[in-house]
Amino acid sequence: MLTEEQVLQALEPVKDPHLQKSLIEIGAVKEIKIKKNLVSLKLAIAQPGTAEQMQLQQEVVNAVKNAGAESVGLRFEKLADEEVAKHGGAAAEEEEGKSLLDNKRTTFIAVTSGKGGVGKSTVSVNLATSLARKGKKVGIIDADIYGFSVPDMMGIEERPKVVGQRIYPVTRFDVQVISMGFFVEDNSPIIWRGPMLGKMLNNFFNEVEWDDLDYLILDLPPGTGDVALDIHSMLPQSKEIVVTTPHATAAFVAARAGAMALKTEHEILGVIENMAYFESKLTGEKEYVFGQGGGPKLAEELQTEVLAHIPLGQPEIDEENFAPSVYDTEHPIGKIYMEMADKVIGKIEG
Ligand SMILES: Nc1ncnc2c1ncn2[C@@H]1O[C@H](COP(=O)(O)OP(=O)(O)OP(=O)(O)O)[C@@H](O)[C@H]1O
Asked: What residues does ATP bind to (predicted)?
């Protein structure tokens, strides 16, 4: 079994990103619990709840796992101001302004669905790239905590740069991308509780260097649970797009997501019916594999319009520009997304 000594030794080279001193030297380790090979740590650092913490948590997990832990749980708290000063740092200052939430120019569009697997992330990614292809400055936040798929879908391998307190998004297809998945270890199970999730999202608004966005697309967790509701409430100014499949029951479930949008007073821009039909390449005939009518029914219920019926179909994958879920502008589905982007721009910019 791993000992406390070994854990401390493993942490010796890891530095507090703000103070640039070893966690051990600044007395950051406030608690160590070891159960078999599960290690849980409480760490006091100069600037918890910030980009610096995100940068650090990965280093700590790696160091302790390299020492033999199977799983590492972390809790962070603020290192006392005297300690911060003693080790050469300035007391944490409130981040100055520059929150995306204050930028009047930016329109937030949350993409939601009643349940998982209906294509919400695919729609978010393609809406974002199409808006960018129309010349708009666009960002996307992948906040779907049940599966961070946006980086994979867009073929992103790099991670954002973290410089001091600022996070620089990764740019792909002219879209500025931030995903929670950038800050967690591959496949590591993470339990997101409301406050932690809210804090992460707030960081994405306040600490990411977004370049003067016209549109910010938010890929939200599916469903109508507490987490989804919390996020919706955090974004009072957001508009919303609801994704459904054509099946009547799918639309019924999506209606609950839509009702939640109305409760939070978000304007619903429209409904997208995804996987609407399959079009035969040979005959051009449409087959309604997943039923029919779900989109229009949902739009009627939410008193909005159907922005697009998107058929089944895969993007052509270009080896050089590998992005498994981004449709080209020449692809029939890519064209539908471009028309949809026009509709969205028309609705917002008049
Ligand atoms: N129009 C389409 N034609 C073919 N495949 C599609 C289409 N839309 C989405 N898909 C595929 O369906 C799967 C689910 O899509 P996606 O991940 O976008 O759904 P989601 O609603 O975001 O799911 P989750 O909430 O579970 O993340 C993916 O494999 C995606 O490539």
From this structure: 114-121
